[in-house]
């Protein structure tokens, strides 16, 4: 009996030692994270960020010890940017900026436009604010002003609507779609036609064209060069640059 007890104790001790060794091996195989400041870590091997970092805006020294981001500096100089698709969020920002600047002073506001167009309701909110505030609103197209973008370009104060020489300007009738019951489709179609008449009326007033001519010209996408847009009445001036008018533009090919 004493021999069996002694053998059992030895066997138990051996099993405990084996379990401890296995546990130690498991612990040693665990990957222990290094501290972030560990100099042995190559930063090029770190995991890439899950999101693309935002573009850093340059900071402007105001000379008083304060710094402003470039967009705030432009706003301080009464310059606002309509860039990208016209949406409700953009309209709210531009409306707020115009109301703020109009409350500060009655000096001109300059709106730079590079937009493919967008929401009619958002665009009309911007348009109505431009007409509501006492300041003149100078509009300048760079890049593109299409659809609602061209409408807002033409809505600037007459004599103060401009475009850079390689900008593209396009007008067309409003786009829309409807689904549901036949009555709902008819209501939506009637509303789109009514909105088209309103837009054509304002374009006619801005350009000097007749409403009938505007309706005809907006039936399909109608692209114009800045020179053509000036003749049409959408803008008043093509801004000269280092290369224009020194370099002549090629003629647009026929369809």
UniProtKB/TrEMBL annotation:
One of its GO terms (cellular component) is endopeptidase Clp complex. Its EC number is 3.4.21.92. InterPro entries: ClpP, ClpP/crotonase-like_dom_sf, ClpP/TepA, ClpP_His_AS, ClpP_Ser_AS. One of its GO terms (molecular function) is ATP-dependent peptidase activity. GO terms for biological process: protein quality control for misfolded or incompletely synthesized proteins. CDD domains: S14_ClpP_2. Gene3D superfamilies: 2-enoyl-CoA Hydratase, Chain A, domain 1. Belongs to the peptidase S14 family. This is ATP-dependent Clp protease proteolytic subunit.
